[in-house]
Amino acid sequence: MSNITTEQMRFWSPAVRELEPYVPGEQPKIQNLIKLNTNENPFPPSPKVVAAVQAVLEHSADALRLYPDPDASALKQAIAKQQGVEINQVFVGNGSDEVLAHIYKAFFLHDEAVLYPDISYSFYPVYSQFFAAKTKVIPVNDNFEIDVADYKQPNGGVIIANPNAPTSIALPLDKIEEILQANPDRVVVIDEAYVDFGAESAVSLVNKYDNLVVCQTTSKSRSLAGLRVGFAIAQAHLIAALEAVKNSFNSYPIDRFAIAAAVASFEDQEYFVEQCQKVINNREKLVKDLEALGFKVLPSKANFIFVTLPAKDAGKLATELREKGIIVRYFNKARIDQYLRITIGTEQENQRLVDTLKNEILK
Amino acid sequence: MSNITTEQMRFWSPAVRELEPYVPGEQPKIQNLIKLNTNENPFPPSPKVVAAVQAVLEHSADALRLYPDPDASALKQAIAKQQGVEINQVFVGNGSDEVLAHIYKAFFLHDEAVLYPDISYSFYPVYSQFFAAKTKVIPVNDNFEIDVADYKQPNGGVIIANPNAPTSIALPLDKIEEILQANPDRVVVIDEAYVDFGAESAVSLVNKYDNLVVCQTTSKSRSLAGLRVGFAIAQAHLIAALEAVKNSFNSYPIDRFAIAAAVASFEDQEYFVEQCQKVINNREKLVKDLEALGFKVLPSKANFIFVTLPAKDAGKLATELREKGIIVRYFNKARIDQYLRITIGTEQENQRLVDTLKNEILK
Prior knowledge:
Number of domains of chain A: 2
Oligomer: homodimer
Order of helices and strands of chain A: HHEHHEHEHEEHEEEHHHEEHEEH
Radius of gyration of chain A: 21 Å
Strand content of chain A: 5-15%
């Protein structure tokens, strides 16, 4: 905000003057970079996604003049079927970030503080500030693990990324059940952006717990970051709160192309399972290769790994990798400033990362 | 919310329990209806829009795995060029409803009340409630006109739809300048969703007034309601506030298809001008035909008209039209419950409306 004068600031709502917005990972416009910085899938979406958008162009391009279904019912139905829940247990939004924003508004504005880990998705503190939600940040332990005992105190809601980001560590479902049982009067949100790469989804617990909201996205495991479709699964009474919020903010968040494309993705379960397995395989190979180079790698259930090299400053390493055309994510933040978050790439990309480290940077 | 129990409501943030969400016009799934209820354009978008999405599918479908540009710079550039402003004077969002929501958060949360007309876009009171904005509703006069003198009192911001909806009446720019001059310390928002059908845009005033925000949409005049792209034009210091809000809510609101499609629309000025003129021509014809049937039609600069038939109850008329396969918008609201808002259709649709009224309903 440095170029805005105090005089100009008089127009801004006072609370907005204090906002510290989220800073997304860089989307460089440079060609031929190896982009391992924003946890995108290295593989393209299902060919059926492309075919579905093609079909919209061929058969209903004129319908672009018409608003989309405000409820995106076709998409909710496809998600419900794939997830094994009822359609009224599904909420959809313009990316899981919008879903999370609506979750904050719907469930977290109580008198007590929302709880989340200190090392987690860096949008949570941004939402807390945006919605003026009372907040208590809970440190993870020295192994970057969440201790569920910390979430058994009075609170205004709990949000936990599982697997956590940027640590990549997953909590097992029995630990999540402990948190759910300890908070019968508050909503517990499990943010499962990365769950499809080997962790256990809490969707299987939705019918058992009336205080559970699970949030997922099509951006990672479905290779649709370019499309902006996120969703939440919960019992119908919680989905109703999200709908009330959404319909007080923006009636039609999901456009006609996005609805058609996402439906096609959810209908192609075979492709989805295959691609996730490929990412997992690539991850296991990359972990071994980096460990052989002396890296310490946290146990990952995500499509990224969180690594540190005891002999080398992490910020410096990120800079040197960038000079070689490889971007990874570095967080200049207490506790994790000696770590790098590296997205799992294709076999070729991962190999080039390993070769660059071995032959050029650490030689 | 009738099916949510009080016990289940304990999870909801207290303020959310009170929300009265916006109710969009019906999007019926029935075929062969004449749909004159949501102010969509009767003509399809530019063929270049379809070609642009086709090009994404052919040349960069794999890029769907990647996040879109969070700033949608290509789209901002296309809008800036078409509107004759700088790129840092453009803000884009997921439909103009999202842009309006961000405007509320960015500019309207002061100690004084936001002002808007009693008869106007029915999302304004929803935003006021959602953001807990102090609000003072100003009655339009008996001719449904805005008296600018009413907007010269202390306030926390002003929002006026121009042309106004559902009245269709436009304010001339000199009247808007009076409001801008009377409020040097507060933002005045001119919501121009319908401006391209014959009203004067306040975009020409943006460089003159540091307190002006103009909001527009691609949903009406560009036939892209199905795509969800809205935008605001203002001086850079005001755009910065909107960016701070947007980046605290959702980093990537506009997907890759929507960016490509909207860019193509802004680059096809010739098609845009032609289609708007066709809608205006159809409007003028429809107004004459309805006046011949005894309707009173407010003077419209929009792609809809606001009409009343002294001899017939408006709600009853809407019901009878629906029975004949024609949907128009009826607001069961004080002051306007004897009016219908009718979207301008194709020549054939308008003719069928007139014929149905003449030969079946009013015979």
